[in-house]
Amino acid sequence: MNKIAVVGAGISGLSMANYLEKHKIDYHIYERRKKEDLAGHGFLIPQEGIEYLTQIIDPDLLFEHGSFLKKYIQYSHTGKILAEKDLNNVFAISRHSLINLLSRNISPEKITYEKTVIPCDRQKGSLKQPDGNYIEADIAIISDGSRSRIRKSLFKDEKMRTVRENEVVNIIQDKEIANSIENDFMKFHHDQGGLTFGILKLSHDTILWYSQFDNEIYQISECSSHNLKKYMLEVFEDWHPLVSSIIQKSSYENVHLWCVYELEELNPFHTDNIVFIGDAAHPLIPFTSQGVTSALKDSHVLTKHLVEENNITEAFKKYEAERKPEIETHIKNGRTLLNQFLLPIDQHTDNILPISYK
Ligand SMILES: Cc1cc2nc3c(=O)[nH]c(=O)nc-3n(C[C@H](O)[C@H](O)[C@H](O)COP(=O)(O)OP(=O)(O)OC[C@H]3O[C@@H](n4cnc5c(N)ncnc54)[C@H](O)[C@@H]3O)c2cc1C
Predict the structure, then answer these.
(1) Which of 85, 129, 235, 314 reaches 20 to 30 Å from 70, CA-CA?
(2) Bridge pairing between strands 274-276 and 270-271
(3) Coiled-coil intervals in this record (predicted)?
(4) Is any atom of ligand 1 closer than 6 Å to the C-beta of 256?
(5) What is the pLDDT of residue 36?
């Protein structure tokens, strides 16, 4: 097998490495961040994602680090139940835990941290490090996230646009609050639309929460954690007491402010010896809850075709043909869910679950 470089050690890069390990294919990962530098947010993962994850992570270990959610409950902002739906194996886990679990099977010599990879303008299909040294590889698997610099440099005409939604995501450790709620996915909605607060219990003492803002009405700019907390308290002041107590008691040290972007049109998933996976191939908006599952499926499908095909270009083509239609469905569903989010609650349709299914 050819020499493989993986750029980015997020969910897609690390899951790719796990699949390559399974098939005893050699690779090296280059990651920009420091090893210990992990942002504080987390994920909602539908059943299909769990099926792919348990192919590469010990299920017992995985289930110890997160929790299955029983029901989705949609509330008004004051706490009146508007709708409920049973959930089928939807799992919640922190990003920190998932990255740690995915890193366990990767030996330290196969990953270099604090190494930013940049494209080389002069030589088609080649990548280099900021010190000018080339990355030596026959295949480059690019998993450098939704705002991929490498994708942008190769597809110069691509257009990214801001999505009419920003998200604040945080994790709070508080036994009392965690004890007071069930293992459900609770989501509170402003009557007029464009503002929600979601709560997911991760463990007996930890909760993941997120709020979604219509950014044409609520303008949150990059600001200090102190100001962000103040803003959150003002906006959610008259909401259900559970919401305001979570906002009040959270530490904002690792809070994540997500300014969401999408590609106007998807690019090809490959060019020359370079192939894109995860958000680098196809940024997905938050409403889909499909970013992690799609990253896992990309890695799985790409590995399968690399193993089965002698010709790299054929393997890349088959990977793209298998993955792109499903991604297009999630993009379409994501836009429908975004439009619904912007509407007053009494104009929502019956499909209440904020997860895209293919
Ligand atoms: C706040 C938030 C909440 C989310 N919630 C959910 C959810 O509930 N469910 C869900 O399924 N998805 C969710 N997502 C989406 C999900 O995080 C992504 O779809 C998923 O992580 C895809 O991972 P990735 O590896 O492709 O990209 P990323 O996780 O972005 O990883 C990219 C990696 O590449 C590294 N990198 C970047 N540039 C370079 C470079 N030039 N050289 C080397 N390394 C580089 C970065 O440091 C990073 O480690 C959420 C995302 C955010 C931001």
Answers:
(1) 235
(2) antiparallel
(3) none
(4) yes
(5) 82
Q: Give the number of other CB atoms < 10 A from CB of residue 157.
A: 6
Residue 73 to residue 228: CA distance in whole angstroms: 27
Amino acid symbol at 300: H
Distance between CA atoms of residues 256 and 168, nearest Å: 6
Measure the CA–CA gap between 218 and 99, rounded to whole angstroms. 32
Please tell me the total number of residues recorded for the chain in this structure.
Answer: 358
- Asked if 171 and 94 touch (Cβ cutoff 8 Å), the reply is yes
Flag whether pLDDT at 106 surpasses 80: yes
Higher pLDDT, 52 or 222: 52
Contact predicate 114/33, CB 8 Å? yes
Which of 18, 30, 31 for mutating ligand 1's site (highest number of atoms within 8 Å of CB)?
31
Q: How do residues 335-356 score in pLDDT, each as one tens digit?
A: 999 999 999 998 887 667 778 8
The candidate with the shortest Cα–Cα distance to 186, out of 39, 74, 78, is: 74
Give residue for tokens 């003492």: 205
SS3 of residue 82 by DSSP: strand
Structure tokens at 286: 């938050």
Whether residue 202 has its Cβ less than 6 Å from ligand 1: no
pLDDT of residue 165: 96
Lowest mean pLDDT among 128-132, 275-279, 305-309: 128-132
Q: What is the pLDDT of residue 223?
A: 75
- Ligand 1 nearest-atom number relative to CA 8: 34
**Does the Cβ of 326 fall within 6 Å of ligand 1?**
no
Averaged pLDDT, 71-97? 94
Measured between alpha carbons, how far is 63 from 83 in angstroms, rounded to an integer?
A: 28
Place of tokens 């299920």: 59
Tokens coding 330 = 């999630």
pLDDT in the model for residue 124 = 62
Query: Beta strands 81-94 and 66-76: pairing type?
Result: antiparallel
Say how far apart CA 222 and CA 257 lie, in whole Å.
Answer: 8
What local confidence, expressed as pLDDT, does residue 132 receive? 79
Q: Which two tokens stand for residue 97?
A: 């835990």
